[in-house]
Amino acid sequence: MPLVADYKTFTDARSHLKEVFDATARGRTVTVQRDGQLSAVMPVDRLRTYFSRTVSPRVRVTREDGRTIALMDGRPFVSEGTDVNGALADLALSLREYAEDWDDRLESAPNHAGNWALVQLIKLSTDEQLLEWLERGGE
């Protein structure tokens, strides 16, 4: 059974924008079709929570020559600091820069295509949420 749009046109969704946002405020996902493409409008907090539970940071922290190293296993992110908090803060900054680069030019690169969910998590997270995700290893 094909997906059915809540709003079959962008114009219809635009004329009912208040209802669209009221529905998402209640936690509902609303779909809108435009030029044959179906898109979803949903609460950011629910989407962010989903990504934080399903995207694993796989952070490993080690000490080397008086420095604390934080790296993400299987991903090209390594940061360092004088302690764990400093290394994770530097890692979070690296992730923010990566998300910007991903939007600008890395999105279509084959070796970065698998990082879509990670980038969305970074973009939807506050600095505090991103650090908590790194520290707790996801959920």
UniProtKB/TrEMBL annotation:
Taxonomy, superkingdom: Bacteria
Protein name per Swiss-Prot or TrEMBL: Prevent-host-death protein
Annotated organism of origin: Cryobacterium algoritolerans
